[in-house]
Amino acid sequence: xxxxxxxxxxxxxxxxxxxxxxxxxxxxxxxxxxxxxxxxxxxxxxxxxxxxxxxxxxxxxxxxxxxxxxxxxxxxxxxxxxxxxxxxxxxxxxxxxxxxxxxxxxxxxxxxxxxxxxxxxxxxxxxxxxxxxxxxxxxxxxxxxxxxxxxxxxxxxxxxxxxxxxxxxxxxxxx
Length: 175
Known about the structure:
The model has no long low-confidence stretch (mean pLDDT 95). Strands 2-4-5-6-3 form a 5-stranded antiparallel β-sheet. Strands 1-7 form a two-stranded parallel sheet. The chain contains 2 helices and 7 strands, in the order E-E-H-E-E-E-E-E-H. It starts with a strand and ends in a 15-residue tail after the last helix. The protein has helices at 30-49, 133-160, and strands spanning 3-5, 11-16, 52-63, 71-82, 86-97, 103-116, 127-129.
């Protein structure tokens, strides 16, 4: 089986925070942050697999500190663990005060992608080899997250059997 190092899928993207990027609290819109993290994480998945990839789940996005207009924001992503066709991608979001140089972890995220073959069916991906302490910790704890992800997906499928796709106004019976 082919293997690759985590660093081979690493993507770094840094942006300034401008007035059109912020909410009424003058901090980065959560949706804007999520758009950036989707772009870098999907690039990491494609870089690791060298295939088309689809998002299977956004497992978590944890907002830890606000990102302000005096900050830049860096998104660092890489593949931390692989299944047969799936890849867990970790994204670390770092805010840097551009005047003081102080840096802090503003958010973290974990997403899962599936690599596709030319017929849009799941296909095998290389195993991943962690090197740094951070990479090893994420790699070692990934099987538990994969199990939880699988259980959560099953519960979502069960819940979906009770949901309707009707238009909202069709849910109510006339009195």
